Amino acid sequence: FWDFIVDWIITNTYDSVQSFNFFMTTSILMPMKEAYLAMPVAATLFLVAGTGYIVGGLRSAIVVTGLIAFIALTPWWDRALITAYMATFAVFISVIIGCSVGIILLVCDTFQTFPSFVYLIPVIMLFGVSDLSVLIAVIVYATIPATRYTVEGLSNVPQSLQEAGSMSGVNRTQRLLKIELPLAFPHIMLGINQTVIFSLFMIIIGAFIGTDDLGQLIMQALSQANGMGQGIVLGLCVAFIGLAVDHLIHTWAGNPPNKPR
128 — alpha (psi -120 to 50), left (phi > 0) or beta? Predict the structure, then answer.
């Protein structure tokens, strides 16, 4: 029965799915990947330092630059950039979906009960082994925290402030933009932070199907008898990407753009 369903899906969706796969890979993913790989180390560190300084001042600039500089000193800078490109795309789409459909908590609860490998099965069946397959699985998995924390933040806005805004004459959209979203901002940023962590986790899991990021090197190192040291350094590279983003998000959440310093 299930073989029949799978065959029917592949037969009836093959052309459209492959067209979408080709478009996404050639028009969006490959140019984005090449752009990341073309970034010089010095320019990347300068960009990271500038972002850190804008978000949290000199201390943040030193912290995030030090984390990324560690990766730059390893032989796997290109693989780290590939990991960063995949995480960037997945987080961007996940945040859009999560913040837009934050009311679907039941769906989130259902998806979160699945083992991470389950997300790879249908996308490999439809799209084959490619970056797009991994990224779709990552997006489905990483959308959950963005959705959950957006809902949590908006639901915790005091009812008295919502009523006060309505009584002052603002419409529903103005109340959302001017009152509810600013108050929910720390929760939303925490959700984005968790989305980054979930994305990095699933990207590493995606190495099992043949991606060429840091995850592939981690799997190779773990399979070698003398690869433990290399595996530790590679793991630190992935962790430091997450820690750098974590620091920037926590700093930004504590000092939102509309908050006077």
Answer: left
